[in-house]
Amino acid sequence: MLNGIHHVAIICADYPRSKAFYTQVLGLKIIAEHYRQARDSYKLDLALPDGSQIELFSFNGAPPRPSYPEAQGLRHLAFKVDDINSVVVHLQAYDVVVEPIRIDEYTGKYYTFFSDPDGLPLELYQLN
């Protein structure tokens, strides 16, 4: 029935800052970028290596996401990585604050969290 996740949509507060973060820091490739004049909004389609996508939107006046305490709804977005340590070093080179690497008590896999420029919780999860 369901075959996987096609995309995750994210609304950002500062489009140029978030575009730079997702393309330059996280290294996602741009599929398409559109300015939607009727909405005074950008839509940026970004590709991940597995074929899934992130849609980055800008909407004027969008309220901030309540994260702490955690609100109902999408909790975080997790990215699969091969080598969590090298990705953490890469993020830290861009002054991204990354939590200490932990081990999932149920799976034994390594994971950690960091945030995008708007405070959206992002996770790195090492599968091997």
TrEMBL record:
GO molecular function: metal ion binding
Highest taxon in the source lineage: Bacteria
Entry keyword Metal-binding: yes
UniProt xrefs under InterPro entries: Fosfomycin_Res_Enzymes, Glyas_Bleomycin-R_OHBP_Dase, Glyas_Fos-R_dOase_dom, VOC_core, YwkD-like_dom
Domain VOC: 4-127
Assigned keywords, A-Z: Metal-binding
Pfam families: Glyoxalase (PF00903)
Keyword Metal-binding: yes
Protein name (database record): VOC family protein
Species the sequence originates in: Shewanella psychromarinicola
Organism ancestry: Bacteria, Pseudomonadati, Pseudomonadota, Gammaproteobacteria, Alteromonadales
